[in-house]
Amino acid sequence: MSGGCGRNPPPFPDNEDQEAELDTRVLDSDEDDDDEGEDIFTGARSKPITPTSAPDEGDIFSEEGSYIRSDVHHATNGLHSDEELDLFTEATVELTLTNTTSQGRREIIGPTASACNTTHVPNSILKPSIVTKTMEELEEEESGDQFELNIAVTNPEKIGDGMNAYMSYKVSTQTTLPMFLNKTFSVRRRFSDFLGLYEKISAKHSLLGCIIPPPPQKSVVGMTKVKVGKEDSSSAEFVEKRRAALERYLQRVVAHPSLLQDPDVREFLERDELPRAVNTQALSGPGLLKMINRASDAVNKMTIKMNESDNWFESKLQEVENEEQLLRRLHAAVDSLVNHRKELCLNTAVLRKSVAMLGSVEENSALSRALSQLAEVEDKMEQLHQQQAFSDFFILAELLADYVRLLGAVRCCFEQRMKVWQRLQEAQSTLQKKREAEAKLLWANKPEKLQQAKDDINEWESKVSQYERDFERVTCTVRKEVLRFEKEKARDFKQHIVKYLESLLHTQHRLVKCWEAFLPEAKAIA
Amino acid sequence: MEVSSAEAALSVSASSIRITDVTQDGDVLTFAIASQKLNSSAGVCVFRIYEDFDWLQQSLFSQENLPGLQGIIFPPLPSKALPSQSNTQTKALKQLGFLALGQDWQSYCKALEFYLQQVAAHPTLCKCKALDSFLINSESPGKQRGRKGIFNRLSQAVEEMRKESHKDVDNFFQNERNKNTNLAALSKVATEKLLDVVMTEQKLALACGHFATSLHLCVNQDDAAAVAFSKVCLKLSDVIEAVNRNFEKVASNDLSTLGLGLDLESRYQEAEKVWECVLMIACKLIELETVKKGTEKAKASKREVMEAFQKAVEKEFNLISSVAKQEIERFHSSRVNVLKNFLIGWCELQLNTAKEFAELYSQHLEACRNMYSE
Question: Which parts of the sequence are annotated with region: Disordered (chain A) (predicted)?
Fold first, then answer.
């Protein structure tokens, strides 16, 4: 293993602010008795981190980016052994485990559940009456039993040299779920492994109408810089961005009740060596986009409405499309915000230099001192701007980008339903043709061909009823998925706003301290 | 710093001079200048345009029978503002620097106000009748334009002198010149960099505004989940709006204190440069005159006349020299004081703003956390 660019923890949270800063991604709703919509679970309470080293060292798993600055050195390049447990404080994921049976009963998944052993969808065949279920009943199914599963992606390391080099990431899991072999374990994975996982999950579950979280996008430019060995801040930023994106991706995957039960997911998390995933070219950004755009076309081809629930689907799809546009716009706005902050950072650095020079030629000693102090203030502010820019990016911009892509995945979901319906339509029309053929034969009185015709009809009748069931099932699944997605989205955004505010507040407090430190210096000028 | 002497002194208090209002009529800015009479509680208010300020400056330069005039460091007058519509912000920035920013010419007015206060506080310049007339007469002094003072007469020569390096008359002045050159350049740079920072802060405020507005478009009341999401978006919009106001405040604080201070410092350094040139020229002129007279008188052997002339020249020279030295002392101590006040003011303003917004963010955070239990 060649020396890697180890991941340095983010430079910001201060010791004294550690508790206030901790991510409250985990909902604490012990007091919440509401049965109706809110998820009732507790995750691991975030443990306060007791930092052992320099004041600027922060939690490894915080969502904000770490910026590898050459002047910030850390004793170790990875996890401290006594911080092992703290690995996951920022990485908790709310989990629901339900067996999505037709009766709406809550079932607890045990280790012997059939889901674990089969590669098929754990859903049992749904009866057609499902479609008439009310919204409340569907939402009730959401809440389930509580288990804990925390995932973190850390320690990016460059393996190999030149154009064959790649980044390897450590995927660590901490769980109380019985279906895993251990409680705590970790493996190393590379980017193509994640793409491979997506491909496998997608192949199995998207046909059923599940919303599959999309993986982070490939980036030829970004990766090439890393491969070539450019150790500058932009490639460090790229690696951090990717690491965080991979972490969020996995957390979303395991947050999905059906996907969590998929043995491929378990294998991804547990197995030491994975066979190398090939053919992951198709999953580049443009490829995914093409797949998604077909969804809208498919809807437009649908000429005959099936039943009243179509209205719901049609308007929902429209909503999804609108929202996607809106989020794109928001993302652009945040992007511009991030860029301006970075600009402010640069300008502040330049100002600091010029003020420092002014202070050094100034003859009046008190004024000279004050100017040097002013340069210090500007220096601190530059750091604050830098950190806030990272917050803006990792908390807001990436959230919006993720959801733009997730909404694309939702549209894929709708497309799947379309496909199933089309298949049903085609089968129905084939069945019709077969019946007509039989009628013709009866009329033409050709008994030898009649048996064949009857066989055909039977075959197609059973196909039609199979496809009908499929369609009902997909419709139900898509509906549930959309509901779950929307709730999750609202909650996700809420959490991120709180996080963002916490970072703003933190920055603001430090700013106040800066000014308070400078005031006596200014007053001391004589 | 009013001087009580037999000569006419300023009839208003220097520190009470304020520019209270500015109105714009097409291309012309009119300033309302108020001040407090010294010996009564009466206030005076007059209206002036930029050309009147220019007239005042020229009058100060061209005072006659004022010994040692060449030694005085004249408070710098800001350049004329050109407020016409076709003047884009970039042009305005190039022309006026910091003073072009800020709402409704506030920074510019502050700079002009400061100029008047400096003139009125100067022990020699405050006695100039033109100043009194400028501050008190309801009629504008505009009719008397065109008097060119020492500065204009020598302006071309100043350019010539700058190009060549001349030996200074005194080591003291040589040192001053070196220091001044450094400081002038660095102050200018610092001012420009601060200007960049302020512009970026304003851009940030604008970007926040856009973001906040876009968030309002996400409101959708279709179903429970959409309502919840809309609430979240609106909350974020409020927060971003707060960040917007924060940046606007920070930028305006920067402008009104540090920006102004650095700009003033920068212009004062330039004024000092000019002063040096004027000094050099004056001394050079005296030299030339001495040589000239010497050549003339060499033929006539009227030694007493020669010696008397020599003494007179030396006296004039010493007078300028001593005035110059006093001015420099005064300049430095005043400059340090001015910068100190600006720095304190800036720090206090920014500290208050930072605390104010820390409080606001804290409130938003509370409200957001409570949203969980809704």
Answer: 1-61
Cα separation, A458 vs A164, whole angstroms: 57
The full DSSP string for A279-308 is --GGGSHHHHHHHHHHHHHHHHH--S--ST
Count of beta carbons in the 10 Å neighbourhood of residue A16? 10
* Distance (Å, whole) CA B74 – CA B330: 12
- State phi, psi for B27 to the nearest 5 degrees: -90, -10
pLDDT of residue B8: 60
Nearest-neighbour CA in chain A from B125: distance (Å): 26
Sequence-separated (6 or more) residues with CB below 8 Å from residue A494: B232, B368, B371, B372
Provide ipTM, 2 decimals: 0.79
Are B350 and B198 contacting, i.e. CB atoms less than 8 angstroms apart? no
Total CB pairs under 8 A between chain A and B: 159
CA atoms of B67 and B56, how far apart (whole Å): 19
Provide the 8-state DSSP code for A163: G
Strand partners, A437: none
What residue of A is the nearest CA neighbor of B353? A512
Element (H, E) at B117: helix B106-121
Q: Residue B197 and residue A194: Cα distance in Å, rounded?
A: 42
Q: Is A504 on the interface with B (CB under 8 A)?
A: yes
In contact, B208 and A334? CB cutoff 8 Å: no
**Mind telling me how many Å the CA of B149 is from chain A's nearest CA?**
33
Q: What are phi and psi of A15, to 5 degrees?
A: -55, -55
Express each pLDDT in B227-263 by its tens digit.
888 888 888 899 999 999 999 999 888 888 888 888 8
In the structure, what pLDDT confidence band is assigned to residue B201 with cuts at 50, 70 and 90?
Answer: very high
Q: Does A357 touch chain B (CB under 8 A)?
A: yes
| Structure token digits, residue A16 | 């004294």
pLDDT in tens, A227-249: 776 667 778 888 888 999 999 99
Closest CA to B361 of A12, A500, A400, A345: A500
Q: Show which of residues 237-266 on chain B sit within 8 Å of chain A, judged by CB atoms.
A: 239, 243
Measured between alpha carbons, how far is A331 from A358 in angstroms, rounded to an integer?
Answer: 41
Q: What's the rounded Cα separation, in Å, for the pair B239 and B234? A: 9
**CB-based contact, B341 to chain A, within 8 Å:** no
Is there a contact between B229 and A357 if contact means CB atoms under 8 Å apart?
A: no
- Chain A residues with CB-CB distance to B347 below 8 A: 515, 518-519, 522
Which among A361, A364, A519 has the least Cβ separation from residue B186? A361
- Asked if the C-beta of B221 comes within 8 angstroms of chain A's C-beta atoms, the answer is no
Q: What DSSP character marks residue A393? A: I
pTM assigned to the model = 0.72
CA–CA separation, A24 and A89 (whole Å): 9
Chain B residues with CB inside 8 Å of A512's CB?
Answer: 351, 354-355, 358
Check CB contact of A489 with chain B, cutoff 8 Å: yes
Q: Is A505's Cβ below 8 Å from some Cβ in B?
A: yes
